[in-house]
Amino acid sequence: MTATEPFRLTAAQAQAKFKDGSLTVEQYAKSLLHRVSTRDPTVHAWAYLDPDLVLEQARKLDRIPPEERGPLHGVAIGVKDVILTKDMPTQHNSPIYEDDAPRIDAASIMTLRANGALIFGKTTTTEFAATSVGPSHKGPKTANPHDPSRTPGGSSSGSGAAVGDMQVPIGLGTQTVGSTIRPGSFNGIYAMKPTWNSISREGQKLYSLIFDTLGLYARSVDDLQLLIDAFQLVDDGPEGHFAIKGAKFALVTLPTPEWPEPGPGTEAAMKKGAELLRAHGAMVEEITLPDEFRPMYKYHLQVLAGDGRVAFLPDYYQAKHHLHDSLIGHVENKDKHTRRDQLKAFDELAAMRPKMDVLADKYAAIIAPSALDEAPVGQGNTGSAAFCGPWTAMHMPVVNVPGFKGENGMPIGLSVVASRYRDQHLLRVCREVGKIFEAEGGWKRNL
Amino acid sequence: MTATEPFRLTAAQAQAKFKDGSLTVEQYAKSLLHRVSTRDPTVHAWAYLDPDLVLEQARKLDRIPPEERGPLHGVAIGVKDVILTKDMPTQHNSPIYEDDAPRIDAASIMTLRANGALIFGKTTTTEFAATSVGPSHKGPKTANPHDPSRTPGGSSSGSGAAVGDMQVPIGLGTQTVGSTIRPGSFNGIYAMKPTWNSISREGQKLYSLIFDTLGLYARSVDDLQLLIDAFQLVDDGPEGHFAIKGAKFALVTLPTPEWPEPGPGTEAAMKKGAELLRAHGAMVEEITLPDEFRPMYKYHLQVLAGDGRVAFLPDYYQAKHHLHDSLIGHVENKDKHTRRDQLKAFDELAAMRPKMDVLADKYAAIIAPSALDEAPVGQGNTGSAAFCGPWTAMHMPVVNVPGFKGENGMPIGLSVVASRYRDQHLLRVCREVGKIFEAEGGWKRNL
């Protein structure tokens, strides 16, 4: 048996090899670049990737003396192309920004670089991370690595696909409704949307101030841990080890007709997830989100319309003819939202947040669907974000935990959710839940 | 009598001359530049100003055929140096960003340029618009144009001073507590903080997502009107002409000891403002903000601490030794705010907003103090923002209307406040209130 090819390593595993001297960042980067060159002609995950720049950065990292290396030393990160990077273009999958390359790093990129990360390239996105039309606007669209006839989801399409395809261990996404969690489920990877505003969103294309959140992709909880520690996400008070045995979970379904019905794959994953947790000694209470939360999705979309009206006005002035119809609709307020309705939606969502925290705090975590079903066929539409909306609107941290599969063998994950600012607790829970779902859920990465 | 020197014109007045052909944008820009060259060695309002770039842009605007000119054609705008401009550096008054010049426009700048504005230069700011230490970190500090021994206020120090000094008709500021309104009062100009999130904050240095707002400076309500129309601020439903006679105002004082006592100048301005409105036929009801709003200032500062912790983390990683102690304190959470307290503050402020709207909607507008008193002596400290905090925390639109004077003859303005998304209504009110305060308040610009 040969040694694992470096591209297959998680970031934490690669770091162990950097530490014991059995792998350099340059060798690692070369393995990732080779993976990209063989796989990406099918997947199309990258909006920009300069191998020379990657190798130059990698060599620079190798030259840092071991005692001066940062906590993210050599961790290779694909960056959604709505996040500014000072050494690469940021194009938003919009003709308005083709080849645009401002010399500035987003706040998240500054933090990652300061911790030693290797900023690898820019990954594809739907237009401004604000439509459900699969990227790219020119050339072939991004494909699901597990079945290229299917979508990888969106709007963080490229980051989800690249991490799922082992072209890079870590990806950055964004989420305004379900743009991080949905691709997580479709690509069979861990996806984390931390508590709103717990990581600076500066330098990340704006859609909604009150919803937009940086998203994190990885193939292990250890890798997510590396990231949230670098971003200094801290809960109140220390907590000990988390054990599944004796823990209480809520298995949450969302009330219809406000939300759609889950497909058979998601329904089976929810059932199996509950069975597995129970088999390992947990209590699982099945609940439907209480009635007071029913208007949440309507409010979410209403606030989003008002926010989109503000966010896309400059682009509209710049080049209306280059904007997607839905964005023009926001700016022109085609749905005739009133300010009164917009404020009511904003205020009612705000009033729901502490109530939802109280509900969540009764459990170790809430388990909920991540997506309607496995990734649909076709790359033009990235699928429904409806199931991800509640936790985005409520500002709660969510992790998509992979492990299940749909009727066509495609990956399906479940959302594990905690109350606001319990991101560290949530990862402790997901570490244990993930062990079980990955081992016994029925889906295996086969790439 | 000679014709008015062009630099003395408001933006709307200058536009009338562009239109009738009696003034070109280039001639106008030359007059402003001349004003800068004679006055700014005393005032120090500019962090960056390139006369050649200004004239080049002005000539370009003059070449646009009249029928293709934008609504802000030739309107010269000073931009606070925490707002990104693609053709000028953005330095945040921080050594970390000295000479930093990312090639990107903030959303607000994109909109202004698309409407024909002349982006004039970058105005001084306190460090990251987040301290009360008067700019600049190197060289002389920005002075109040009406008395250079005094502060122009902050954090939008340079924009307030430059507009007050007629070096430029329009300035952009930002406000997180009182960074736009306070300099408005100190410099004797109109200052507007629109409804939160009614103008895109993208590309403006982040301090707090939930409070930061772009601010607008001008020497007339007509000029503010030009700006908010370009930014497409729209109220619900059309409203007719506003008349002072028969209108009802609230003269609001804030409960102590949560807020400080106003100084004699502000107290006199409040008294005189009420008298003048009554003399013109308005009803003025004197109220103190109800008790349920008492914790507002404490909550505001608490949320700000949590937000600062996130916003300045990247700069902290980059160069902690270059950060002001208060910002290091945010990142290191020196005051030991818990997540629980932070969420309580965030949620309670959210719950107050609809209640404050109800209170405001009983009146044509709320009249409140803008600052403790006239601008204090010394340029090192920009003064207290306490009186501006409530309306920032409540997301309400506010205009500082000038017209009064303090014991030392310095200008004092009053805040005129409306409920959220009534920005157009607020300007209609301020147009009439401003006529009275400017004519009869007792202070005259003498520069």
UniProtKB/TrEMBL annotation, chains A, B:
It comes from the Eukaryota. Residues 30-427 form the Amidase domain. Gene3D superfamilies: Amidase signature (AS) domain. Pfam families: Amidase (PF01425). Residues 130-166 are annotated as: Disordered. This is Asp-tRNA Asn/Glu-tRNA Gln amidotransferas-like protein subunit A.
